[in-house]
Fold each of these.
Amino acid sequence: MTTLKSLPENSCAYEEYDPKTLKPVNESTFTRLMELGWKKEDFAGKSVLDIGGNSGILSLYAHNLGAQNIHYVDVQAPLVEFFESVVGEHKLPIEIERKGFLELNTEKHSKDIVLCMEVLHWLVDQGGNVQDSIQKLTDLTNETLFLETPWDVKEPSIAAKGVVLEEHYNIEMIIRELQAHFETVEMVRFMTYFGNMADSKRILIKATGKRTNNLQSSANDSVINEDYSLAPAAA
Ligand SMILES: C[S@@+](CC[C@H](N)C(=O)[O-])C[C@H]1O[C@@H](n2cnc3c(N)ncnc32)[C@H](O)[C@@H]1O
C-alpha cells in the first residue's frame, strides 16, 4: 500500500490541490481550471496524454470530465511519486510513467487528446526546438492538441534563465508550425491565473483536424497577390 505524499514544494501555485480531498487549494488553481473552458462533451470517453503533468492536476481534471485511458508523464521523480501516491490512494484509472518528452513514442503514447501545458518552452530550454516539438506533438495527437504556452521569451520564468532566444521561441513561429500540421488552430484565450505579472502573457491554443499532408511554411503563403482586391465581390 502506498502512503499519500505531500506535493513537492517546487510545484507552482496553479498546480496545487489537496491530495486527500482532490480539491484545488487556492484561487490560482480555481481560476486556471475555469479559464481552460474544458467541457464534459470534449473529454467524455476520450483517451488523454498529459505531458509534463507535474502534480497531475490536469489528469485529474480530465478524469473528472469523463476521459478514459489517461496517461500521465513527467521527468521529475518526486512529482511522479507524489502523483502515484494520489492515484493509488483514490484508486484512479490513470497510468503514470516517469518519462521525458523525447522518449514518448506514437505506438504507446498516442492519444485522442494531448495536453502540452506549460511545457513547450522547457523543451526548447532543454535544447529542443519548436518545429521538432510540434511535429512530435502532432504525431502523438489523434484528435485534439491543447497547448498552453508563454507568448514569448519575455515571460519571467524564461527570461530569468536567459537560455531561450526570441528567434528560437515566439508565438508567430508556434502558430505557423501548428497551422502547418492542423486544419484548425484556435487561440482560445489569454490565461490570467498568474495575476498581473509584468511581461507574463500565456495563451491557451487548441489545435484540431490533423492535416494528412503537412503544409510547408504556411505563414509565407499569403492570400495577397497582384490580382487581389478589397472591393466587395460583385452581386
Ligand atoms: C510548468 S510545469 C506545467 C505542469 C502541467 N503541465 C500544468 O500545466 O499544470 C512543467 C512540467 O513539465 C515537466 N517537464 C519539463 N521538461 C520535461 C520533459 N522534457 N519531458 C516531460 N516533462 C517535462 C516538469 O517536470 C514540470 O512538471
Amino acid sequence: MASPAVVWDSALLGYDLGGEHPFNPVRLELTVRLATELGVLDGVELLVPSAAGDEELLRIHAPEYLAAVREAPLVGWDVGHGLGTTDNPVFSGMHEASALVVGSTLLAARKIADGEVKRAVNIAGGLHHAMRDHASGFCVYNDCSVAISWLLDHGFDRIAYVDTDVHHGDGVQAAFYDDPRVLTVSLHQHPFTLWPGTGYSAETGKDKGAGTAVNVPLPPHTRDPGWLRAFNAVVPSLLAEFEPQILVTQCGVDSHEEDPLADLSLSVDGHRTIYATLRDLAETYAGGRWLAVGGGGYQLIRVVPRSWTHLIATVLDRDVAPETLLPPGWVDAVTRAAPAAEIPRAMTDDRDTTFKPWGDDADEPVDIAIRDTRRAVFPLHGLDPDDPRD
Ligand SMILES: [Zn+2]
C-alpha cells in the first residue's frame, strides 16, 4: 500500500472569487508552503488533478445550472442560479476552475476506490454548500457530493460523511437526504445564529434515509472541550452502528476563534485533535479508508495554514508537534507579503483540548445540543439516547 495521496496543483488557485472576497486562494498557497517548509511533504508525490467532466458534474447538478455557470462570465449579470451575487461573484473561467476542484476530490476518491491508498487529502475541496441548481456560500460545484455519488457507483454502498466546518453542510445533506447509503453528520454553529440557517437536530433525513442525516447545532463561543464533548457523544456511536466502508470528512477551519465569519471559539490545537480523532475513527470503523477535504476558513494567515498543515500531516501519519516553531522561510515570505500581519510563533495556540466526556454530572452549554441530537437520531439506529454507554 502506497503512502496516503495528497492532491495538489497550483492550478487550483484559479478558483478565485476575486477582490476582497474572503474565500481567497492564498490560504491554500500558504498552507502548501508551510507544509513543505516543515518537511511534512518530503518525498510525497503530489497528485495533479484534471477537471471533472459533465458526466460527473451531472451526478449532482442540473444541466441548466452547468450551462448557466459556463455562460455566466460572458453574460455577466442577471444569470440567476445564485450566480453574480456578493457571495458567489462571477469570475472568468468559473466553470473550468470549479470543475477542477471537483476533479481534485474525485481523484482522491478514485485512488482510494482503486485500492492504491487508504487515505487521501485535498485541501482545495470541501465546497459543501453548492446545491443541485444553484451556487451557494462561495461554492459553485459540490465536490463532496460528486465524489460520494461516484463512490456509490464504484463499490461503496455505506459512506459516512462528517462535516466539521462552522457552517451546516447543507448541500451534501440535501444531495443524500433520502439515501440510506450515505450518513451525513454536521457539527456547526447553531442555525439561529449563523448562515445558512439550517442544520437543526430535527433534520434527520427522510423516507428510506430516515436517521441518516445528523445535525449537532452548537452554541456560539463553544470552545475546544465543548466541541469535542459533543462530537464524541454523537459521532463514534453512530459510526459503529452504520459500519461505513469509507469516512469522508469536510474539514473547514472557520470554527476557529479568530475566524472573521463565525463565532465558535476553537483553536488550532482543537483542529489538530479533531483530525487525530477522525483518523482513529476511520481506522476503527471504516477499514482505515479516509478521504479528507478542506472547506471554509477565512483567517488566511494565522489559522488556515497551520490547521490544514496539521490535517495533511495527520493524514500522512507525520503528526507535527504543537510546539513546533514556524519555519523562518515561511515567516519571511508572509512578512514580505503582509507586513502588518501578526504571525504566530508556533503550530499551537497553547490551548488545552482535554474535555469531559458527556454523561458525567456536569451541565455544559453543549449538552442541550447533545441531548437533542441523540434523541432525534439514536433510536433510529437502535441506540439509547439517554445511555452514555451508547
Ligand atoms: Zn464554513
